[in-house]
Amino acid sequence: MALIHCQDCDMQISSHASNCPFCGNSQTDGQARNKELRFGYLITGFLLPFIGIVLCCIFRRKNEGIARSALIGTLMSVVYITLIYLQFLEM
């Protein structure tokens, strides 16, 4: 049994619980929403890679979708910057 964080009160609850025992919030739709990629965090990670790394570290246990989005954006930014740098080296 794994522990997850409630979407509303942020208390640790069982991953098998359908409702939070502390606040009563339904957890069934929140778990699926937790793993979705978020476009805003993806763009933030791309434009500000350091902030993307910080967001990934903050949300890695609470919300996998946000953490993954920030990390993907950061990695895309690093690849893009590396390609631009290599183009300038060839000139």
Description:
- The chain is mostly helical and 91 residues long.
- Helices cover 59% and strands 7% of the residues.
- It has four helices and two strands, in the order ββαααα.
- The chain has a two-stranded antiparallel sheet with strand order 1-2.
- Strand 1 (3-5) and strand 2 (12-14) form a beta hairpin.
- The protein is rod-shaped.
Write the layout of secondary structure elements.
Layout: E1 3-5, E2 12-14, H1 28-34, H2 39-47, H3 49-59, H4 64-90
Antiparallel strand pairs: 1-2
Helix pairs in contact: 2-3, 2-4, 3-4
Computed Rg? 17 Å
| Strand arrangement, major sheet | 1-2
Give the helix/strand class.
mainly alpha
Number of helices: 4
Q: Mean pLDDT, rounded to whole units?
A: 83
Number of β-strand runs:
2
Helix content, binned percent: 55-70%
Order of helices and strands: EEHHHH
Oligomer: single chain
- Percent of residues in β-strands: 5-15%
Q: Can you describe this structure in just a few lines?
A:
By secondary structure, the protein is mostly helical. 59% of the residues lie in helices and 7% in strands.
Index terms:
single chain; 91 residues; mainly alpha; two-stranded antiparallel ribbon; 4 helices; 2 strands
